[in-house]
Amino acid sequence: MNETIKTLLSRRSIRKYKKDPIPDEILAQILEAGTYAPTGMNKQSPIILAVTNTSVRNQLAQLNAQVLGQDKDPFYGAPVVLAVLADKSVSTYLYDGSLVMGNLMNAAASLGIGSCYIFRAREVFEMEEGKELLRSLGITGSYEGIGFCILGYQDEEREASKRKENYIYFIQ
Amino acid sequence: MNETIKTLLSRRSIRKYKKDPIPDEILAQILEAGTYAPTGMNKQSPIILAVTNTSVRNQLAQLNAQVLGQDKDPFYGAPVVLAVLADKSVSTYLYDGSLVMGNLMNAAASLGIGSCYIFRAREVFEMEEGKELLRSLGITGSYEGIGFCILGYQDEEREASKRKENYIYFIQ
Predict the structure, then answer these.
(1) Do A9 and B102 touch (CB under 8 A)?
(2) Do B4 and A47 make contact, defined as CB atoms within 8 angstroms?
(3) B92-118 burial, b for 16+ CB within 10 Å, e for fewer?
(4) With an 8 Å Cβ cutoff, are B117 and A38 in contact?
(5) Considering only Cβ atoms within 10 Å of each terminal Cβ, which end of chain B, N or C, has fewer?
(6) Which residues does chain A have within 8 Å of residue B51's beta carbon, measured at their own beta carbons?
(7) Whole-Å CA distances, B153 to B11, B26, B48, B139, B148
(8) What fold does the segment set A37-152 form as a domain?
């Protein structure tokens, strides 16, 4: 089995993190891999907000928790959050943004960094505070939140869950 | 740079294929990697139809071409087609199915197999012929087509296109 297949099979969704930051050169590799996900007609509809700033990270966590209607950190203590959004004016935006999320998580796993896909990005960037964050970055246009890829050194071991029966149907 | 990162950066969308079939053990690895994509709440909402049967492959191509309103093969001569669908009753189905597509394409690339994401799967499985194919496999429930992952040995070399400016925004 080659290294890529091993990574794809062994990546887990991590829900407990150490506080250690991610070195810049590691984060740069994860981000670059994200930008190389395929997109419909190569329109590259997504963008990635790479949040290492603690107060912005905490603000996004708080907004996400608000959508969820809970108090605890929905980012599970992960020090880094990558918010993926995509341009709704491109018909494939939702697929495009999801493919970026996948590349980010797989790249992270290959580099020994834990990750998890956290939802409610759409709702967060529909909130006034989310919109204000985009404006403060000079981002205009109709971007919809696709997901938060939380990142950090994992502080738990996770086994693979069983794959469901009938995942694959062969037509031979 | 590790092997996984190399795969993620060097995977290209391939639009010219040799006719050679894909060995079963290679296809099995690609499919398994697909099933290990993360899904919302681990509900594993997607399914994969692994089509190596030529007449079903051609039927899907013809239906896809019909949606597109053209005559030529929208699957670019690729001998194998993996149709990913996902259960619409799961709120994250569209993201889930896209993540499966991403894993399939990346796994293929790591094994020297070319791939391309072909859209219009939703429309194909909304057509009577598409529904009939699902019924013939005993698939019930509200499955929506997410994408066709076409596969084969590539018969062209492709360079990476330039990534757009402002793909990544750092908030440090």
Answers:
(1) no
(2) no
(3) bbbbbbbbbbbbbbbbbbbbebbbbbb
(4) yes
(5) C
(6) 171
(7) 13, 12, 20, 30, 16
(8) NADH Oxidase (3.40.109)
From first to last of its 172 residues, chain B has per-residue pLDDT tens of: 999 999 999 999 999 999 999 999 999 999 999 999 999 999 999 999 999 999 999 999 999 999 999 999 999 999 999 999 999 999 999 999 999 999 999 999 999 999 999 999 999 999 999 999 999 999 999 999 999 999 999 999 999 889 999 999 999 9
Q: From the CA of A55, how many Å to the nearest CA of chain B?
A: 10
Contact B138, A172 (CB under 8 A): no
| CATH fold for the domain made of B21-152 | NADH Oxidase (3.40.109)
Which of A111, A116, A167 comes nearest B35 by C-beta? A167
Q: What is the ipTM of this complex?
A: 0.98
Q: Provide the 3-class DSSP secondary structure of residue A87.
A: strand
**A66 is written with which tokens?**
């608000």
Q: Which of B22, B35, B98 to mutate to test the interface with A (most CBs of A within 10 A)?
A: B98
